[in-house]
Each structure stands twice: as C-alpha cells, then as structure tokens.
Description:
Strand content of chain A: under 5%
InterPro entries (chain B): ABC_transp_permease
Number of helices of chain B: 17
Pfam families (chain B): BPD_transp_2 (PF02653)
Subcellular location (chain B): Cell membrane
Oligomer: heterodimer
CATH class of the domain at 42-167 and 209-327 in chain B: Mainly Alpha
CATH topology of chain A: ABC transporter involved in vitamin B12 uptake, BtuC
Membrane topology (chain B): Multi-pass membrane protein
CATH architecture of chain A: Orthogonal Bundle
Helix content of chain A: 55-70%
Order of helices and strands of chain B: HHHHHEHHEHHHHHHHHHH
Number of strands of chain B: 2
Distance between the termini of chain B: 51 Å
CATH architecture of the domain at 42-167 and 209-327 in chain B: Orthogonal Bundle
Number of helices of chain A: 15
Order of helices and strands of chain A: HHHHHHHHHHHHHHH
Largest interface: A-B, 49 and 49 residues
Protein name (chain B): ABC transporter permease
Amino acid sequence: MRPARTPGWGVASTLAAPALALLIALTVSTAVLAAVGASPSRTYLTMLEFGVRPDSLVSAVNRSAIYFFAGLAVAVSFRMNLFNIGVEGQYRFAALLAAAAGTSFDLPGPLHLAVVCLVAVLAGALWAGIAAVLKTWRGVSEVLSTLLLNYVATAVIAFLLAEVFAAGSATGSTPELPPSARLPELDGLLALLGVSLPAGAHLGGAVLGAVVLGVAVHLLLTRTLYGYDLRMSGLNPAAAHAHGIDPRRMIIITMLVSGGLAGLAGLPDLLGNTYRYGVDFPSGAGFTGIAVALLGRNSPLGIALSALLFGFLERSALILDIEGIPKEIVTIMQGVIVISVVVAHELARRMDRRRTARLVREGAPATPTAPATPAGPAA
Amino acid sequence: MRAATPRPWWRRPHVVGPVLAVVAVLLAVSMVRTLTGTEALTGSGVVGATLRLAVPIGLAGLSGLWSERAGVANLGIEGMMIIGTVCGAWAGYAYGVWAGVLAGVVGGVLAGLLHAVVTVTFGVDQVVCGVAVNILAVGVARFLCVVAFNGLPGAGATQSPPVRGTIGTISLPVLAGGWGTPDLLGRLEQTHWFLLSDAGGILRGFLHDVSWFTVVAVALVLGSVLVLWHTAFGLRLRAAGEHPAAADSLGVPVQRMRYWAVLVSGGLAGLAGSYLVTVASNVYREGQTGGRGFIGLAAMIFGNWRPAGTVGGALLFGYADALQLRQSTAVHVLILLAAVLLWMAAIVGLRRRPRLSGVMALLGMTAFAVFQTTDAVPTQLVYATPYLATLLVLVTTAQRLRMPAYVGVPYRRGGA
C-alpha cells in the first residue's frame, strides 16, 4: 500500500534524498581529500571553474548521453525487479556489430544511419536475450548470468575483431564508417538558440536522440499496457501473475527492451567520435549506467539529471591531474553518491510510512495519490 | 514392521551421489585422456594450477556462503575482493607478505561492515547494495592505488610495487616428495596407466608444492563447517537466514547474527583478494579480480549453499581456468569431455527424465561433431572458458537447488 501524501510533500521527499546523498558524498570526499593532504576547497573550485567552461559543458553533455542510454537500459529492467548488470557487455557487443554492419553496405544518408542503429539495438537485445532465456528456461539468476556474459562478450568481441571484422587490419579495428552512417552535429541547432560554441567543441546528435528516447521510454512505461504490466510485475509479482500477466513473457520482453536500449549506449562514441570499433573503444559505461539508474530512481527524468551530473563530474575531474590532485577522487564520489542515495531513499520511505501510520491513527482520511517515486529494486 | 534404522553416513544419498559423480567424471576424463593422448588433462601440473586458481574462487564462495546462510545476499564480494587486493598489496609492500594477507582481511571486513550497515541496519535492497559496493570499491581501489603507490619503484598508475617476500609451499612426504622423500605419486603418474595414473596425477597435484596460504584456506573451510553446523552460534546464524521471525521469537538476535555473517563474509572476500596479490602474483593490478567474486558466488550456488559443494564448484572452475592458462590446446579436448559427460548424464537420466536425456544426448552429439570438425579453440575464446563453464553449470543445476529461505529479505522487527 502506498502511503498517503499531502501535495508538495512527495516532491520534497523525492528531492530530499538525492540532495542528502550529494551532501554525504561531498562530506566523504572532503574527508578523503583532507586525509591525503589536498585542499578540498581548492579542489572543488578548480573543478567547478573548469567544469562550467562552455567546451567542458558541451563535452559533459555529450558524455551524459552515453550514460543516459546505459542508465535507461538498466532502469527498465530494475523497474521489473530484474537486474540487468550486463549492459557493459551488451553495448560493446552491439557497438562492434553496428560498426561492422555500417561499413559492409552503403545506403543513402539517414537510411544508413537508421540501419546501423537498428543493428545495434538488435545486437544488444540478442546478447541480453541469452540471459532472459537462461532465466525462463532453467531458472538461472539473471544477476549472475548477465555478469558472466560480460566476460564472455569480451572474449567474443576479441575473437570477432581479430578473426572476422578486423582481420588483416593494421590498427586492429573495423574500417572507418562512411559519413552517411555518422551522427550529425547539433551545432546549428544551438546557433539557432543563440548559443555559440568555442572552436573544437561540438554538440553530438546523440543528445537529441537521448531526449526523444527518454520521452518515448517514459510514455512506454506510463501510458502503455506493456508498461503497466511491467510496473505491476515489479511492484507485486504474485498479484501480476494472478492478474494474468505471464512472468516468463514479461522477463523475455523486458530483457530484450533493456538490451536494445543498452545497444544504443555505444553509438554516441561510435557514430560521433571514433567512427570505428577497435580494442581501444571506450568501455565502462555499462557499470556507470547502473550507478546512474540507481541515482535517478529508475525514472527517465531522474536518469537524465544523474547522467548529466556524472558527465559533469568526469569532465571536470580532468583538470585535477594537472593540479596534482588524483582525479580518481571522482570515482569515489560517484560510488558514495550511489550508496548514500539508496540509503537516503530507504530512510525517506520509512519516514513516509511512519507518517502514514500516524495519520491513520489520528483518523485523518488517507487520500491515495499517485506514487511520487517509481518502484524498483531500490524503492 | 521393523523401525527404520538410520543408514550409515557413507550410504546416505548426499554422500553417495557426489561420490558416484566424482567416479563417473574420473572415468570420463581418463577415457578422454587415453583416447586423445592429452596428458595435461589429469597431469599434476594442471591439477596443482587448478588448486592454486580455485583458492580465491573457493574463498569467495565461502564468503557468499556465510553471508547468504544468514539471509543477506552478498553481490559485493567482487568489490570486497578488490579492496582486499589493494590493501594487501600496500601492506605487503610496506611490511611483508603476511602483513599483506592480514591487511587484505581487514580491508574486506571494512567493506563488509559497509554492506552490513546498509543492508541490515537500513534494510536497503541487498542486491542493489552489493552492486553499489562493487562500484564504490572500484573507485576506492583506483584512488588508493594512485595515492599509495605513486612514484614507488616498480609501480604504475594502475599497478603496485611488488610485495616483499613470498609465502612458502609444502609437499606431503613419501607420497608427493616432501622433504627429500620419494615421490611415489609422481612415479605413478609417469606410467600413464588407465585410471591409476589419472588418480595418481590428480592426488599429486593436491599434495605437491601446496602454498601455506592454501592450507589456511582449507582450514577455513573446515572451520566454517564446524562453526556453522556444529555450534549454537552457527545454528542461530543459519536460523536468521531460514526464518528470521521465528528465530527472533526464540531469542536469537537476528540483526547481530547477520552483522557477524556479513563481517566474516567480508573478511573471507578480502582474504581471497590478498591471495591474488601474495600467491597468484606479487603485485596489485587494476581489474585483477576478473569476476572471481561472482564465479565464487556461482560456485556456492553450484554447491547448493553447502561448503563441500562450494569447494567442488571452485575446483571445477579452477580446472577450467587452469587448463585455459597452462595448455590452451587442451581446452579443445574439453569439448570431447563435455560430449562424453553429456552422454553419461543422458544414460543416467534415461528412466526418470527421458525427454531431458534426449536433449542431452543431442547436445553431446553436437559437441562431438564440433570436436571432430575443428582443430583448436581460437585463442581469444579460450579466455572465456571459466565463465562459460560457470554458465553451463548454472544451467544444469539451477533448478534443483534450495537456497536459504530468507536470502535477500531485509528483516525488521514487527515487519515494518
């Protein structure tokens, strides 16, 4: 049962938890910085100064698109109490196949781009589908199978690169994608808004895709029958089953959707930055995506905000090495944020519950309202 | 009618089954070795490497066992191991190798404390917390590595300087040639007799040049069995995982039991991490754990949340890893071994599960066809052997397992 809320209380408690988490993270990182002999205030000021430069902001936004896709992929599965921890393997596998597909045929402009994206989605879904089938067919926990499949993906990618897609290439990577398969840059759009970018900085087209997809996933979760089934399966599997929702079907579909979204996470880099897939292709976004989803409470808007925060943190950390401060402090910050946000939400939920109990005791009519926080494993 | 007398322990099903399985596997391995001439399959070299690689996996599995038996899912084992590696490498460099082992345990316990506070006290979803612990651990290790090792000789941005000193090894006298005595098993192994030499080679692998660390790990497994199944403390701890409300009503301090379990779990995971920097290698490297924490969890699941089974699972995954590392060509023979084992399983299950048997026989046939038509497993794919073996084992065992009833369920008095 959902606790009753008075208007305004829900928003406050939704925002209070992340704010508290950020505060804890700042405290911890201040303590850590002081412990290793770096000045915390100087560190934060340097980061802020560098981070808000226009080119830094653009780069942070570009980065956050990657984390947004990865976070969205994780969140869709989390909403159903499925733990897709294998986004890392899924998006790298998808990026490789997309890179290979993009160079193997030629199509006019947008069509080429669309096909490359489709291949990425299908490849990501395929890799996640393995875990879905193992779960429904043999009851293998998806937490372990998706994790182990990350390592298998590393091996398969190395094999496919060396023996199939980049065989005989001196660089060890796939050939460069033709311009028709690349994402357009959005600098013109910014210029329309009256923002001019410094030389060398470009806003990637993936950002627009992220916005569109975020809205689409929001609608999918809140306005479709599938989204209803998914949320219901996550909130109360027994009730969902009794309601006629087939859990196996939901597991398969949700893992495929999650994997498909994961497949997109490699595209901002592949189609907007490297244009080829090689052994040095950027990795790690899948794990950051888990952190982003947890911080964003599995809702598209929250994930967008936390992806922006992570992108900003990572970009502004780059200056620290020049200043002689280990930039790895940011990875600690991210970890502390994630842990404290789940704790803060649990505390907020308990407070809510106690408040409801008090209201019920005092005989106030409990008015059911829509839940302000989306349900999920972190709820 | 006579009252049923309890069967002697060696005839109980949970003893007979595994023993028969071991004998069957030994037969299959011996057959495949003789047929293909791949002596490495049961050589004491590979078995010794199996043992060395199985120790961290087994300790990680034991770590999971402690935690999950008390009802706390621990997916943060990988992260706790990472903390163990970086702490172990730091103390090992500064104060010597055994200090490193101890520091690894301390680091793991601290990480376990975090998991305990978040999951037991605050009641956060245990899987989520485990994942978060892993994310945090990677960050902490990266930061500590830069702060502690920067500028030291032999260190890099993602690597520590070498640990000082090594942990010694021991061989069993007479059987495996310790202290200058004859090496009887070694001679038996050299004869390449069917079955006898295989048994000899495997035994010698377990008894020859065994690290003292491994001896400690084996003692810890035995100690865990003793504590968890033969003391009141262990009974209470397991009660917290099987039915916390019932345990609470009988006066068991559920939360305190869960704290103990997760702290021990963290310590064992940290120990597994320090093994990687003191025995398996002598430096800390980023990404060194390579998912062993998760493989350890899989070993525990394979072992049905029991110590003996966990050790069996760890040895199995260690074997896949050892074969992959020492003789990658032998991995190809594993496909044939898989075919033989699948056929054996098909025959065993013919009467009770005919359809599954059919599927298994067919899979065995496919594996055999793959073995016949290929010459070698590509080197890049050989790397995936332990992970694939883990997945395969999960696929075959996942449905007939029984985990502690309340794993993953936070406990609050009064159900609030």
